[in-house]
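Rotation project, supervised by the postdoc (A.L.). Task for the rotation student: set up a whole-complex structure prediction and record inputs and outputs verbatim in this book. Inputs entered:
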Amino acid sequence: MLPFSIDLKPGLPVAEQILFAVKRAVATGQLSPGDPFPSVRVLSQELRINPNTAHKVIAALVTQSILITTPAIGSLVADRSPSGSRERAELLGAELERVVVEAKNLGLTIDDVQAGLVTQWKRLTRK
Amino acid sequence: MNIIETHNLSRSFTGTEALSGLNLSLTSGKVVALLGPNGAGKTTTLRLLMNLLRPTTGTATVLGVDSRRLGPVQFAQIGYVSEDQQLPLWMTVRELLDYCRPFYPTWDKELERTLVAQFELPLGQKLGRLSRGTLMKAALLSSLAYRPRLLVLDEPFSGLDPLIRDEFVRGVLEVSLSGDWTVLVSSHDIEEVERLADHVVLLDRGRLNLSEEADSLQRRFRRVEVRLQGESPEPTHGAVEWERAGDLLRFVETGYSGATTEQQWSERFAGASVTAQHMTLREIFLTFARASRSRSKGVAA
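Outputs recorded:
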C-alpha cells in the first residue's frame, strides 16, 4: 500500500499528479520527515505506471528536496530545514502564478482569491 | 541504438495498401504504445517487424537486424504475444514451460516461479481447457520468463476482464523494472495503455499520424474557451478545430507553453476571459484523427 492518498485521473500527466499528491501529503502531515518513501518498483506496481515515470517522480522529489535518498535505505521524506525556505518560496511562485492566471480568467478579485486561500489552508492544516 | 527502425515500410494485400511508407525510429528502454482504430495497420506493422510478413516495399530493422533476416539468435531476445496466439493446446502449462525453457539461454527460473504465483496459473491443466484470460497469461509468462530485450504485444488486452488485465500489466511492469528493455504494445483503446506508455505512435488508415512522447503531447495540448467581446479573431498558428458560437470561441491549442502562451492570449483576446484545460490522450488522438480525415477529404474533393 502507498503511504499517501492518490486517485489518478485521466487528462493530467501522471507524473504531475503524483508529485502533487506527495506534496499534499507532506503539507498535511500524512507523510512526516523520516518516513520511508516507496521505491520505483513499489510506485510502479501499485499505481500500474511505467517505471520510467516512477523514476522521474522520485528524481523530481529529490531535486525539490522533498525526499532524500540514501543508497542503503532508499528514499526518505526530508527534514524541512529553514535554510531552504527561500527556494520553497520560489517553488511556490510558479504555483501562485497559475492560481492568479486562473483567477483572472474566471473574473475573480484578489479578495476572492485570499478568501479561497484561507479556506483551503484551514481545510488542509486542521488536525 | 534504435531498437526498431523502419524506412518507407509498406505492405499491400491484393492491391490494397494496409501500411504506406512508415518511417519510424524507436529508442530502447521505452514502453511504446502503437495506437489507432481497427484497420489502421497496427497488426500489419507488428507482423512485418516480427518477420511474419514480408514488406512489399521498404525495410525494417529490429535489434539492428533487417526484419527479413531475423532468426533464432534475435528471437531468443524477443517476446511476442498476439491476440490470436497459436499455442499447443494439448500441453499442460507445465509442459509448455518445459518446452520453451531450453530455447532461451536467458530463461530466469526465479522469475518464472514469481510469475506463475502472481498469475495463479494451474500448472497441471491443459492449455485447451483454460479460459481466454488464463491462456493469455500463460502466453505472456512464456514470453516474459527469459527477460526479452524487446516485448511485442499485439492487442493483448482485448477481451480480457479488468482483473486479468490488471495482473497482465503488473506482470509486464515486474519485468520492465529489471533494466533496459523495450515494450511495443498495440491497442485500439488508448485508456488501456495511457499510464503505461512513455511514447505513443498513432496510425490511421495505414499511415503514421504521430510519434511522440506522451508527456510532451499532454504538455502542448489544451482545450481553450474564450468569452469574446464583439470582435471576431482569425485562427492563430497552432490552433485547430476553431469554432465560434455567439460570443463563445472554442479551439484546441497544439503548441501550449505555459505563461508565454497565456500572455499571447491575453494580448490577442484583450480582456476576454480565457480558460485552458488539459486534455486526455483520448481527446488528443480524436483531434488528430479528425484532422487527418478532413485532410484526406480535402484531397478527394
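Student's summary: Chain A touches chain B at residues 8, 10-15, 40-41, 44-45, 47-53, 97, 101, 105-107 (CB under 8 Å).
Supervisor addendum: The longest helix of chain A spans residues 85-105.
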